[in-house]
Design a protein that fits this description.
Blueprint: H1 3-9, H2 13-23, H3 26-33, H4 40-51, E1 53-55, E2 69-71, E3 74-76, E4 80-82, H5 95-106, E5 110-112, H6 120-124, E6 130-134, H7 140-153, E7 157-161, H8 171-176, H9 206-214, H10 221-230, E8 235-238, H11 243-251, E9 256-259, H12 273-284, E10 289-292, H13 299-307, E11 312-315, H14 317-348, H15 354-357, E12 361-363, H16 370-382
Parallel strand pairs: 4-11, 5-6, 6-7, 7-8, 8-9, 9-10, 10-11
Antiparallel strand pairs: 1-12, 2-3
């Protein structure tokens, strides 16, 4: 099926998921869509977002809803950044070059994963606004080297993932003895070796083994101070769920936090990201930006996040679904669908822009109104 034909069949980002299932080898599909443990947190992310209901306003001029906003000081055509996702050449041969091109064309930032299958320099040539994601490496010298490469390539922010002292138990990958497809490597770590695609070993995941070899589980707040001194770029912490950690991030000069449970791929049983969002936003108190990650699938989800205190969201798996379904054009189509959904939802919610969306009231499935939720947020943050 050609990209044009595929795109015509995709009316929502979720439609791309089924196309991706058909296009990808089973082990790669499970690597993309899988979760830690039994998938409790993966499911909770969607269930929690589905419980949030918006209370629309009426009699407002929504003839031309504006989806544009700013993320980390950069203009974006919608409050979305493409999340950091590793080894995208496993999904499509063009990998990160295709998804970065899609982000460029839709006017949103693209986050380069430290474990990307194209180098930051190669991705920079595409011309997207780039953020650079890092894990805390055992070798600080290598961390600094990567930061300098990211700065030289033109990245405008650094995102440190803080919820991965070790990789979650991703049972599908372990049962399959997952290894990366032939020719797919971490472009920034070409000296890494693994079991190879021809000889999978049940119980061993190549990606988990590489992460264990490279990532230092001793990461602490003193290390954040050190990292803050290494770069003048805005610093984002990804993986914050507790409001006390958000307060501490502000004290350490962090520019943004991402409320994220790693898409359900780390601690199985962790709180759904959107359930954690209001308290984290309250704790940040406007002193740093707050982004939502994990489970975002639509333009309406973006409005829910903004109404609950987020500046914007990270979009992950749906972009990979589009990439698998139709390469760069597929990824671009998914991002375009999200923007169209966002514009449509803004109009129907009575919001001419994102500022109006931030003032919407919400009702949850248990009957709490937005006003009650505000008091609950204050109580939670105050109870230290």
């Amino acid at each position: 099926m050609s990209p044009a034909t595929t795109n015509a069949c995709l009316l929502t980002p979720a439609d791309a998921e089924e196309h991706a299932r058909l296009a990808l080898p089973p082990t790669v599909e499970r690597f993309v869509n899988g979760a830690a443990g039994t998938g409790l947190t993966l499911r909770a992310n969607r269930e929690a977002l589905d419980r949030v209901c918006l209370v629309p306003r009426v009699l407002t001029d929504v003839s031309s809803p504006v989806t544009a906003g700013r993320l980390l000081g950069v203009d974006a055509k919608m409050p979305v950044a493409v999340a950091p996702m590793a080894y995208q050449r496993a999904v499509h041969e063009d990998g990160e070059l295709a998804t970065a091109g899609a982000a460029r064309d839709l006017g949103v930032p693209f986050t380069v994963s430290m474990f990307s299958s194209h180098s930051v320099e190669e991705i920079a040539a595409v011309g997207a606004t780039m953020w650079f994601q890092v894990y805390w490496l055992r070798d600080r010298g290598r961390t600094v080297e990567l930061l300098r490469r990211a700065e030289a390539a033109g990245c405008v922010a650094v995102m440190l993932t803080v919820d991965t002292p070790r990789m979650g138990r991703r049972l599908d990958d372990l049962r399959a003895g997952f290894s990366l497809p032939d020719g797919v490597k971490a472009a920034h770590f070409r000296d890494l070796s693994g079991p190879g695609p021809g000889d999978p070993t049940p119980g061993v995941s190549e990606v988990a083994a590489q992460t264990a070899a490279l990532v230092d589980p001793s990461l602490s707040w003193s290390d954040i101070e050190w990292l803050r001194e290494q770069t003048r770029l805005p610093l984002i912490l990804k993986g914050v769920l507790d409001p006390l950690d958000a307060r501490r991030a502000v004290r350490h000069g962090v520019d943004a936090v991402v409320v994220s449970n790693h898409g359900g791929r780390q601690l199985d049983g962790a709180v759904a990201s959107v359930d954690a969002l209001p308290a984290v936003a309250e704790a940040a108190d406007g002193c740093c930006e707050v982004l939502l990650d994990s489970g975002v699938r639509s333009g309406t989800d973006i409005i829910k996040a903004v109404a609950l205190g987020a500046t914007g969201v990270l979009l992950g798996r749906p972009v990979l679904w589009g990439l698998a379904a139709g390469g760069g054009e597929g990824a671009k189509h998914v991002l375009r669908l999200v923007q169209e959904e966002l514009e449509h939802a803004l109009a129907l919610a009575g919001c001419p822009d994102l500022g109006a969306a931030s003032r919407l009231r919400t009702v949850t499935a248990d009957g709490r109104t937005g006003a009650v939720l505000e008091r609950a947020r204050g109580d939670m943050v105050g109870a230290r």
